[in-house]
Amino acid sequence: MNPGDxxxxxxxxxxxxxxxxxxxTADPGRxxxxxxxxxxxxxxxxxxxxxxxxxAFHATNSMHKSSNNAFTKSFTVFPxxxxxxxxxxxxxxxxxxxxxxxxxxxxxxxxxxxxxxISGGSNVSVKSYTPADILSVEHRERPDGSGDIxxxxxxxxxxxxxxxxxxxxxxxxxxxxxxxxxxxxxxxxRPAA
Length: 193
Hints:
By secondary structure, the chain is an alpha+beta fold. The chain has helices at 3-11, 28-39, 42-66, 70-73, 83-93, 95-104, 176-187, and strands at 20-25, 107-111, 115-119, 125-129, 134-141, 147-159, 162-173. The chain is 43% helix and 28% strand. The two termini are 40 Å apart.
């Protein structure tokens, strides 16, 4: 997505009295690289599903050939039970591709009232973080000046017996220090607790 389209997309989400300070797009390459470690687990998952389906096919095929019993014919669908596991494994293996495609359609924006993460193509999703939502801001800068901004929010996520704060990452920001300062300025508007 070119910068002009990103700015138009962000401006279309502005509320009355809101002004746009900065807008940018996610770096789809960085998003794909960050999803790469998880995709490695999909290789053995999909590989075992293929092995299981192949073995089940050969076993049921030889059982069917050696017997004309109607009971053995019912086992011919047995290899298909591995198909959901194969699809899950392939989905995990293709996680970098999904992250890349999502990154291509993601726009970040900082306004005088909030931080927005706008994603999606035809079905647009807008997540807004106001000063009241932002607990802390940190950024990681690479030698070329680009980097990522991580915003810790007041939102919580409950899993099993633990509660964790929700973090939002703005990945692949070209001028990360400047944008981080704008987000910090927004954070400084946070009402006192």
